[in-house]
């Protein structure tokens, strides 16, 4: 943890094809002069079925360690379908290399669901439907029931996901609310710019919306001890932790 009065440093490991991570983090932290995010990049494996570990990340963890971060995160959601235990093992590796507490986007979403007490939720996923169904199965093992699923009918690359416009994102998110007695909705995919639509959908439907990119920042702030509330990005960031 940083010394009193010092800037809290967050280390973020971002897939090289992700163009949303840096910009969204910078926007969310615009009013936080006490926190700075530092990013390094790596290439994802070709197959979505491959788990991310220190070998895949290469030099990225050691490079981010050079800034002496107060918390680090793998800014990706592959653990949502390859398994939570793999992400927990990755966090152990990251903590050992960087000397800082670590999380992943997947574990941050899980932590957010638990913090808000959400169990019956809708899922938004911008990738293949078969992967989304694997995600649903993984979360059911920890007591979270995805009762609705909204996934696109076309296959998009990671750069294409980041380029879709607001109307496309809204059309993707809205069907996830189509069930009675939902606790909330979860948008999994850190390159989908859904964070910018969270407050509008929360206001319309009256239930929390967890965006995986937002949850990653929320969890890093908590791990670093800098978890003061950040308004304007939905219920999750608005509640200090």
How much beta, percentage-wise?
15-25%
Helix content: 40-55%
Biggest sheet layout: 4 strands, parallel
Strand order of the largest sheet: 2-1-3-4
First-to-last CA distance: 16 Å
Number of strands: 8
Number of helices: 12
The SSE order reads EHEHHEHHEHEHEHHEHEHH
The radius of gyration over CA amounts to 17 Å
The parts where pLDDT drops under 50 for at least 5 residues are: none
Mean pLDDT: 93
Briefly note the structural class of the backbone.
alpha/beta
Which geometry do the CA atoms define?
A: globular
Which descriptors would you attach to this protein?
241 residues, alpha/beta, four-stranded parallel beta sheet, 12 helices
What's this, in brief?
Helices cover 41% and strands 17% of the residues. It is an alpha/beta fold and 241 residues long.
Task: Explain the overall architecture.
- With 241 residues, the protein is α/β, with parallel strands linked by helices.
- The protein is built from 12 helices and 8 strands.
- It has helices at 21-28, 54-57, 60-65, 79-82, 84-98, 105-116, 129-140, 158-163, 166-173, 198-205, 212-224, 235-238; strands spanning 8-15, 35-42, 71-74, 102-104, 120-124, 145-150, 184-187, 209-211.
- Strands 2-1-3-4 form a 4-stranded parallel beta sheet, sandwiched between helices. Strands 6-5-7-8 form a 4-stranded parallel beta sheet.
- Helix 6 crosses helix 11 (212-224).
- The longest helix has 15 residues, at 84-98.
- The radius of gyration is 17 Å and the shape is globular.
- It starts with 7 loop residues before the first strand and ends with a helix.
- 46% of the residues are buried.
- The model has no long low-confidence stretch (mean pLDDT 93).
